[in-house]
Amino acid sequence: MKTMLSSGVGGLSASTVLLNSGASAQSLSDYKALVCLFLYGGNDGYNVLLPADQSLHTQYLSMRPVYNATSRTGVGVPFDQVIPLNGPSGQSLGFHPSLVRIKQRWTQGQVAVIQNVGNLVEPVSRSNLMVRQRPTGLFAHDEQQEISMLARSDSQGAGTEQGWGASVWSALNGKYGLASAGVNFAMVSFGGANRWQTSPLMLYDNLPPNQTLNFAHLDHTSGLLGLGQSSSQPYVRSYSNQLAHFQTQSTALNSMVSNLNSPGYQAFATTAGGQSSSLHNQLLAVVRAIEARQQLQAPGRQIFFVGMGGFDTHVDQYLIHSQLWNQIDSASHAFLTALESLGMASQVTLFTMSEFGRSLRMNASNGTDHAWSSHQWVMGGAVRGGLYGRAADITPTSEDVAPFSTDVVIPSTSINQYAATLAAWMGLNPTDLNAVFPDLRNFAQPNLGFMNS
Fold first, then answer.
1. d(CA 95, CA 47)
2. Is 150 contained in some domain?
3. Maximum CA pair distance of the chain?
4. What CA–CA distance (Å, rounded) separates 163 from 169?
5. Closest CA relative to residue 432, chosen from 149, 85, 21, 139
6. CA–CA dist 102, 55 (Å, integer)
7. What is the pLDDT of residue 91?
């Protein structure tokens, strides 16, 4: 069944119909999709975007001793392994050595890095940290995951919370009447249950990546559904109609999964070169769903979720983090290559989120601890490549560093600004954005400019 917590497909619920604005909706002639890659555990962005200037790198190593492969101590990336960025916006910065393919995409203008993003209610600095409103539950995984996925500072009440992914789709539906064309596969997760797509008004499809659903293969199902649809009981008819729709969509999904000769599948598999991981499988599933969107009767706007864990790197961070980003590097490159083979690279945008960043200073276990700010990556043909946001002054006493013992960077860019920029690309105007992101009004720059229209 189609729920927020179990696998399923298809279905236009009564509550979803209420979202449709009907005759007042504007026309929509194009297709766009957002793909959220959530990095569970708190990604250490400060070991992915690195100083490529010798003096700044020395300052970085003073907090994060360089990694020693023999003793497996330290977390710092050696200076000669940093991949320098090209162009005026990246002269003194570089990428982690695992990001070889992402660096190629950067050179092509398809990657934007948004610096120092975090959960914020309003702008905050070291000197006003104790008097400004701050997110609740700083440094706590569950609370910060929820805040980043809801992009709201206020509690909406049990059972009424709506993730900002779902809010964006609902606003797009109200604007363009997407539900009138069907809402099959409007919001799809191949990364499990999540708060980002949660809504009391609409359920999302939580599907196993690249697996068929056995429901469609039950030989006696059609006969049973036929009896139910002819029942004199309205609830029986309604339930049977929903199950029949589920069966139809299961059949379409299974047909998509069984097709190993589609251009998108072949391009992804060839580019991945045999490298496989959970993220590879999830992003491949997104490619296949986008490629088969007409067969699946998907609307002109889709919201996808994928995720990977392992980023809570308190211990032995260097090798773990390098392996994780090697997977992201390979899988995201294969994903973009597959979209290019379909002529859809400019219609789909992949972006990262994580509940928080890591401490600037290494801990005693050759890892880093929970912190606040991090960097986020956005990739796709519609991306205006480059560096965005303000680089932090990592001097321990600067206005950008909180007065905590682990040297925590304070975000200078809000998750609201980051999310609103993506939502604007999807088709929402400033009025829509202020409704979806209530705290956006607290920030001077609601659109960060990293997306082409």
1. 8
2. yes
3. 79
4. 10
5. 21
6. 25
7. 66
**In the structure encoding, which two tokens stand for residue 213, read together?**
């659903």
DSSP label at residue 90: G
* Pick from 176, 142, 156: nearest CA to 370: 142
Query: Is residue 418 domain-resident?
Result: yes
Distance CA 442, CA 134 (A): 13
Q: Look at residue 339 and tell me if it is in a domain.
A: yes
CA 365, CA 67: separation in Å to the nearest integer? Answer: 13
Give the position of tokens 């497996």: 72
Look-up of token digits 């002269």: 91
Q: Give the helix, strand, coil percentages of the chain, each rounded to 5.
A: 40, 15, 45
Q: What is the DSSP letter of 66?
A: B
For helices 317-341 and 100-107, the axis angle rounded to 10 degrees is 50
Phi, psi of 120 (to 5 degrees): -140, 145
Q: Which of 212, 162, 211, 210 is nearest to 187 (CA)?
A: 162
Task: Please state the domain count of the chain.
Answer: 1
Amino acid letter, residue 406: T
* CA–CA separation, 304 and 197 (whole Å): 9
- Half-sphere exposure for 423 (CA within 13 Å, toward CB): 32
Cα–Cα distances in angstroms (integers) from residue 241 to residues 88, 139, 181, 246, in the given order: 59, 46, 18, 9
DSSP state string for 141-209: HHHHHHHHHHT-SS---TTT---HHHHHHHHHHHHH-GGGG--TTSEEESS---STT--SS---EE--T
* 3 state SS of 408: strand
Match 């993220």 to its residue by tokens.
279
**Residue 145 domain flag:** yes
CA neighbor of 147 nearest in space, from 165, 168, 131, 163: 163
Nearest to 34, CA basis, from 443, 270, 449, 383: 383
pLDDT per position as a tens digit, 14-57 = 233 334 444 345 778 899 999 999 999 999 999 999 999 999 99
Strands 301-308 and 32-39: parallel
φ, ψ (nearest 5 deg) of residue 377: -115, 135
pLDDT confidence band for 9 (50 / 70 / 90): very low
Q: Give the residue numbers spanning the domain of 349.
A: 14-21+38-442
Residue 86 gets which letter from DSSP? Answer: P
* 285 contact partners, CB below 8 Å, separation of at least 6: 190, 207, 209, 210
Residue carrying the six token digits 């889709």: 302
- pLDDT tens digits, 309-346: 999 999 999 999 999 999 999 999 999 999 999 999 99
